[in-house]
UniProtKB/TrEMBL annotation, chain A:
<dbReference type="GO" id="GO:0016485">
    <property type="term" value="P:protein processing"/>
</dbReference>
<dbReference type="GO" id="GO:0070765">
    <property type="term" value="C:gamma-secretase complex"/>
</dbReference>
<feature type="transmembrane region" description="Helical">
    <location>
        <begin position="232"/>
        <end position="250"/>
    </location>
</feature>
<dbReference type="InterPro" id="IPR042524">
    <property type="entry name" value="Presenilin_C"/>
</dbReference>
<feature type="transmembrane region" description="Helical">
    <location>
        <begin position="256"/>
        <end position="275"/>
    </location>
</feature>
<keyword id="KW-0914">Notch signaling pathway</keyword>
<comment type="function">
    <text>Probable subunit of the gamma-secretase complex, an endoprotease complex that catalyzes the intramembrane cleavage of integral membrane proteins such as Notch receptors.</text>
</comment>
<keyword id="KW-0256">Endoplasmic reticulum</keyword>
<keyword id="KW-0333">Golgi apparatus</keyword>
Automatic annotation (TrEMBL), chain B:
<feature type="transmembrane region" description="Helical">
    <location>
        <begin position="187"/>
        <end position="206"/>
    </location>
</feature>
<keyword id="KW-1133">Transmembrane helix</keyword>
<dbReference type="GO" id="GO:0016485">
    <property type="term" value="P:protein processing"/>
</dbReference>
<feature type="transmembrane region" description="Helical">
    <location>
        <begin position="32"/>
        <end position="56"/>
    </location>
</feature>
<comment type="function">
    <text>Potential subunit of the gamma-secretase complex, an endoprotease complex that catalyzes the intramembrane cleavage of integral proteins such as Notch receptors.</text>
</comment>
<keyword id="KW-0812">Transmembrane</keyword>
<keyword id="KW-0472">Membrane</keyword>
<protein>
    <recommendedName>
        <fullName>Gamma-secretase subunit APH-1</fullName>
    </recommendedName>
</protein>
<feature type="transmembrane region" description="Helical">
    <location>
        <begin position="155"/>
        <end position="180"/>
    </location>
</feature>
């Protein structure tokens, strides 16, 4: 969904420093928010910190729940020493995001290219009821736009519902919801995926082995995601889940609707994050006011963290998570919403992404800072690249072009975040680049390269 | 048309470049970003040149073979010029980036020098160019078929792989030369890069007469390599020492 690089809601009051933002997930204690002091050096460090944190600000804080008021002061001192590291740090965090995004896309593209199930047309989600089988172009366009409107409305409704739930503190409900979603994703979708892969490679597997494998995979996944587990295992599970979700989207979204939905989601992301009354922004602000993590959801984390409980207050008092929350919170939520809605309403196969990752409330004192990215971003990036792989006339150039475009969009988003120091949506730039490159590579570059290859000319 | 062809051609085409990447780029996050951004710039230049070619083709008569070939040649030359223009733009961007990096660093010097950036940028251009030329071929090589069954050359895949390799290397060296020319205001170096690029692309018009296209390209590649090596501060003594496995302490490290 939308990855929001949210800044602490008090962005107007203080210059947002990754550290400070991270610290004061919630209302910044007056003392701690000495952004004014920090402003001079923070200004530069922020640029790069922001870059690597990608949205480190508020949402994550709210989430991380480590609203540490006391940290800012300490942070300021540390800032000076660490300034020389920020640049390498900044680039390092961009790479920490590049790697999982690339892995997710590779998994999706590999599956799309080999398992034919995910490119077969086999019905649609109930969120996209209009069929695209009409002969006329105008009708098809109209249907896809209507599908998009329905899908986006569903997402908006779910987001608002989630914000309402959160405002009225129905935490148990939210948790149960998220656990149910992750259960479905880890067991049902994995079962389907494994079945299709085995079918493709004509490998026989008895039910006993299948049960054993799926049970272990799912159980360990639930533990890793919702509780504690080795970092790399957790990351791997999150990538797998995002890939599974993306594959479901690729399979069940009709072609033109998928592209229009991708575009609409980016616009919605932009609006929801930047408008003062946007649901995401409100959600984050509420979380910040309460000085607690929004709620565990799907966030990919690249740093070593040890898990603390959900709204654990001691954690909050510890040193701030150095993780930069790239709108993890917001993304999560929104993602949860949309994902959840689908899972609930549609048939069994509807996607049910987002599980809360309670375990992600971390705090790192001395450990290296990490970067966090909401899984919604993973999913939509992979949907774009997967769709490009599935529908671009068997052309690998288009897939490659979309891949590079998305990576550069991610890089630019992190850079903009560092420059503007306020909540920025992460989807728009990457998705825009991806869409532009998809259509132009498929229609313009492909004939050119094909003609060149047939004559064996090189440019 | 088997796995052997697939792996053989992919390693011929991308092996050296991936080796360069592995040993010099992937460890440093900043270089990876510059690599990907270089690939992006090349991609944008390709996009614009394809647009121009596409418009030209659509505006012309599709049945006229010589005209189409002429348009294709025009497309190739225009694309070469555009690639070099984008290399220049990328140079400008990296220059600005270095200033930013210097401002942000504590000791007033950038963590990466313009020469390293030149190398990585050239490699990024080369990798993207090679990937776009070769990936579809490799995908086809995995499937069934016979090369040259209709009378074309049977060496198509192999020569494509070799041509891709030489293009990747050339882009890397051109990057170094071009940036050096921009840095030291020696315009003739930039002109030489543009000129050699045009020559190499022009040589491919002689395909499938591979002797005419591959061998001169390789010779040009060695010449450009030597020039780039010298410009980066290398000398024959360094080369001999490195071949003998000794460390040279007095001379500067080539490449930065």
């Amino acid at each position: 969904m939308m990855i929001i690089f949210m800044n602490s809601s008090d962005s107007e009051e203080e210059a947002c420093n990754e550290r400070t933002s991270l610290i004061s997930a919630d209302s910044p204690p007056a003392a701690s928010y000495q952004d004014g002091l920090q402003a001079p050096e923070a200004a530069e460090t922020q640029t790069y910190r922001k870059r690597r944190t990608g949205g480190s600000c508020s949402p994550s804080d709210a989430d991380g729940g480590n609203s540490d008021s006391g940290i800012p002061v300490r942070e300021i001192a540390v800032d000076d020493k660490e300034e020389e590291l920020t640049l390498k740090y900044g680039a390092k965090h961009v790479i920490m995001l590049f790697v999982p995004v690339t892995l997710c896309m590779v998994v999706v593209v590999a599956t799309i290219k080999s398992v034919r199930f995910y490119t077969e047309k086999n019905g649609q989600l109930i969120y996209t009821p209009f069929s695209e089988d009409t002969p006329s172009v105008g009708q098809r366009l109209l249907n896809s736009v209507l599908n998009t409107i329905i899908m986006i409305s569903v997402i908006i409704v779910m987001t608002v519902f989630l914000v309402v739930l959160y405002k009225y503190r129905c935490y148990k409900f939210i948790h149960g919801w998220l656990i149910l979603s992750s259960l479905m994703l880890l067991f049902l979708f994995t079962y389907i995926y494994l079945g299709e892969v085995l079918k493709t490679y004509n490998v026989a597997m008895d039910y006993l082995t299948l049960f054993f494998v799926i049970w272990n995979f799912g159980a360990v996944g639930m533990i890793c995601i919702h509780w504690k587990g080795p970092l790399h295992l957790q990351q791997a599970y999150l990538i797998m889940i995002s890939a599974l979700m993306a594959l479901v989207f690729i399979k069940y979204l009709p072609e033109w609707s998928a592209w229009v939905i991708l575009g609409a989601i980016s616009i919605y992301d932009l609006i929801a994050v930047l408008c003062p009354r946007g649901p995401l922004r409100m959600l984050v602000e509420t979380a910040q006011e309460r000085n607690e993590p929004i709620f565990p959801a799907l966030i990919y984390s690249s740093a070593m963290v040890w898990t603390v409980g959900m709204a654990k207050q001691d954690a909050a008092s510890r040193s701030l998570t150095q993780q930069t929350w790239d709108s993890a919170e917001d993304v999560r939520e929104i993602h949860d919403n949309s994902a959840y809605v689908e899972s609930e309403i549609s048939e069994a196969r509807s996607p049910a992404p987002t599980h809360p990752t309670t375990s992600l409330l971390e705090d790192l004192e001395e450990e290296e800072r990490g970067v966090k990215l909401g899984l919604g971003d993973f999913i939509f990036y992979s949907v774009l690249v997967g769709k490009a792989a599935a529908t671009a006339s068997g052309d690998w150039n288009t897939t490659l072009a979309c891949f590079v475009a998305i990576l550069i969009g991610l890089c630019l988003t992190l850079l903009l975040l560092a420059v503007f120091k306020k909540a920025l949506p992460a989807l728009p730039i990457s998705i825009t680049f991806g869409l532009v490159f998809y259509f132009s590579t498929d229609n313009l570059v492909r004939p050119f390269m094909d003609t060149l290859a047939s004559h064996q000319f090189y440019i | 048309m088997t796995l052997a062809v697939f792996f053989g051609c992919s390693f011929i085409a991308f092996g050296p470049a991936l080796g360069l990447c592995l040993f010099s780029v992937v460890r440093e996050p900043l270089r990876v970003i510059i690599l990907v951004a270089g690939a992006f710039f090349w991609l944008v230049s390709l996009l614009l040149s394809s647009l121009v070619w596409f418009i030209a083709v659509k505006a012309s008569d599709p049945g006229d073979e010589p005209l189409q070939k002429g348009l294709l040649i025009f497309g190739v030359l225009f694309s070469v010029l555009l690639q070099e223009a984008f290399r220049f733009l990328y140079y400008k961007l990296l220059r600005k980036a270095i200033e930013g990096l210097v401002a942000l660093s504590e000791d007033g010097c950038s963590p990466i020098s313009i020469q390293q950036m030149a190398y990585v940028a050239g490699l990024g251009f080369g990798l993207m160019s090679g990937a776009f030329s070769m990936i579809n071929l490799l995908a086809d090589a995995l499937g069934p078929g016979t090369v040259g069954i209709h009378g074309d050359s049977q060496l198509y895949f192999l020569t494509s792989a070799f041509m891709t390799m030489v293009m990747i290397f050339l882009h890397t060296f051109w990057g170094i030369l071009f940036f050096h020319g921009c840095e030291t205001q020696r315009w003739w170096e930039m002109v030489a890069v543009i000129f050699t690029h045009l020559i190499v692309s022009g040589l491919t018009f002689w395909n499938p007469l591979y002797l005419g296209s591959l061998i001169p390209s390789y010779l040009l590649m060695f010449a450009t390599a030597a020039w780039a090596y010298v410009l980066s501060g290398g000398c024959t003594q360094n080369l001999l020492r490195s071949l003998q496995g000794q460390q040279s302490e007095t001379s500067p490290q080539p490449g930065s």
